[in-house]
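Need a sequence for this fold. Nothing fancy.
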């Protein structure tokens, strides 16, 4: 790695750390609630006696609300699966483009006599 690349890499890492730490320092003691909590609060204000018509399936099996750690884990797994699927298809498209540059049009790739 060139010295110029190392400096750029270190600057980008420093910027990422600042972006992560700065909100925690500036908003010390703030509560960061999710949109689910805010939405249920607004519904409760509009109609005081609202009861949900469905409960999450995992909460039925667990017998109560899901712990925060398990909820975060499920969200991360879902995110990982989604990113994996997206990157698979992006990789396929990139590889197809490379193959088209090497072998020419799609008809040439499908016709084994040309190769």
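Here you go.
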């Amino acid at each position: 790695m060139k010295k110029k690349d190392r400096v750029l890499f270190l600057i980008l890492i420093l910027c990422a750390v600042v972006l992560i730490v700065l909100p925690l320092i500036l908003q010390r003691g703030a509560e960061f609630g999710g949109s689910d909590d805010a939405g249920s609060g607004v519904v409760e204000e509009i109609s005081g006696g609202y009861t949900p018509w469905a409960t999450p399936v995992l909460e039925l099996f667990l017998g109560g609300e899901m712990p925060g750690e398990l909820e975060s884990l499920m969200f991360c797994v879902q995110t990982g699966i989604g990113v994996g699927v997206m990157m698979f298809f992006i990789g396929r498209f990139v590889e197809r483009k490379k193959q088209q540059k090497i072998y020419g049009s799609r008809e040439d790739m499908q016709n084994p006599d040309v190769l």
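For context: The radius of gyration is 25 Å.
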